[in-house]
Amino acid sequence: xxxxxxxxxxxxxxxxxxxxxxxxxxxxxxxxxxxxxxxxxxxxxxxxxxxxxxxxxxxxxxxxxxxxxxxxxxxxxxxxxxxxxxxxxxxxxxxxxxxx
Length: 100
Known about the structure:
Elements: H1 3-9, H2 13-28, H3 30-45, H4 55-74, H5 80-95
């Protein structure tokens, strides 16, 4: 990061930290992100997944839901035995194409 970037970010600390954190998360999850994206693209091509939303958005949403489930579990708002069924139902509703 350059001195200018640091200086420019001084007044936008939280926003800058949030963007930086998002970039780090993306870098850390690069392999799984690409793997899930390939799966979603294949599922869309074969008709098993919805096509009304772009693959990149579905990937982002997929991982956001997983992270949210972990946070809910940690906070005690989701019981350990609820995590799997909640994730399965949520992911199915995210990826399943609408019925005609």
